[in-house]
Amino acid sequence: MNIENKVVIVTGGTRGIGFEIVRTFLKNNARVILFGSKAETVNKALEDLQKEGYEIEGYYPNLNNFEEVNNVIKQIYSKYGKIDVLINNAGVSSNAKIEDLTSEDFANIMNINVNAMFNVTKAVVPFMKEKKSGVILNTSSIVSIYGQPSGSPYPASKFAVNGLTKSLARELAKDNIRVNAVAPGIINTDMVAKLPKEMIIPLINTIPLGRIGEPVDVANAFLFLASDMASYITGVILPVDGAAKN
Ligand code: NAD
Questions:
Q1: 3-class secondary structure, 131
Q2: Superfamily (CATH H level) for 7-187+216-235
Q3: Catalytic (active site) residue 154
Q4: Which of 59, 60, 77, 154 is an active site residue?
């Protein structure tokens, strides 16, 4: 995939899909820096990957604080002299009904799923522009296409992710920066384990490939989009969902 020695930042890299993205890029000899929400989970992820023999570092800036994010990004750039790939993967979900949701709940989901993505992207773009090269990949969701019957702030946030992706792809194309998103279906992670069985089982029954996805299914799509094999692909929301419709 020609990703060797590329400097790759992955937010939400401590578990689930993000952890598998980190591992997949490490396997392909990229230089990976993972972000998580706190020291404890970042250190645990680093330890696990180091035990597997990988060289990896991690940070836990508050993604909603632009200055904090910007300082860490500057630190990474001064260490490596480039940032080739940013993967905005951190996210939180919801399955609450509108009557049980507050505007604070709505804001919390938008803050991590959209504002944090904006902050990290804004911090990285000047360095990519300087090199006239870069790839920004965002984790969307199939709910960004279909919506879902509860937890409305979550699909709302993922529709916004698609908006950022398509708009920045057009804005940054002249700087040779590609911007794409991967839209996973139901993937076997903690986020899905927390959802009620009554919600998941009927969904699995509608998946033509007959199974929920594994994090590595999604990680491989990120690897392809980050690689030079996707050199003419930008502004795309790529479903990785076993042809599910919900
Ligand atoms: P997960 O809950 O296992 O992991 C979420 C990651 O986001 C963790 O690494 C966590 O540290 C990070 N994160 C959460 N809140 C954060 C915060 N406030 N600050 C910094 N980091 C924070 O979830 P997952 O299933 O691996 O989801 C990863 C991405 O994939 C999310 O964007 C999610 O919306 C998306 N997604 C997941 C599924 C699925 O079925 N699992 C489907 C579609 C999209």
A1: helix
A2: NAD(P)-binding Rossmann-like Domain (3.40.50.720)
A3: yes
A4: 154
Domain boundaries, the chain: 7-187+216-235
Mutating to test ligand 1, I would choose from 17, 19, 64, 194 the residue with most ligand atoms within 8 A of its C-beta, which is: 17
Residue 74 phi, psi (nearest 5): -60, -40
Give 48-75 pLDDT, tens digit per residue: 999 999 999 999 999 999 999 999 999 9
Q: How far is Cα 134 from Cα 86, in angstroms, rounded to an integer?
A: 8
- Residue 58 CB–ligand 1 contact under 6 Å: no
Alpha carbons 111 and 90: distance in angstroms, whole number: 11
The tokens describing 16, both together, are 């689930």
Rounded to whole angstroms, what are the CA distances from 119 to 96, 174, 245?
27, 21, 31
Which atom belonging to ligand 1 lies closest to the Cα atom of 186? Answer: 40
Instruction: Please tell me the pTM assigned to this model.
Output: 0.97
Copy the structure tokens of residue 53: 């023999």
What does pLDDT average to over the chain? 96
**Is 98 buried (19+), middle (13-18) or exposed (0-12) by CB count in 10 A?**
exposed
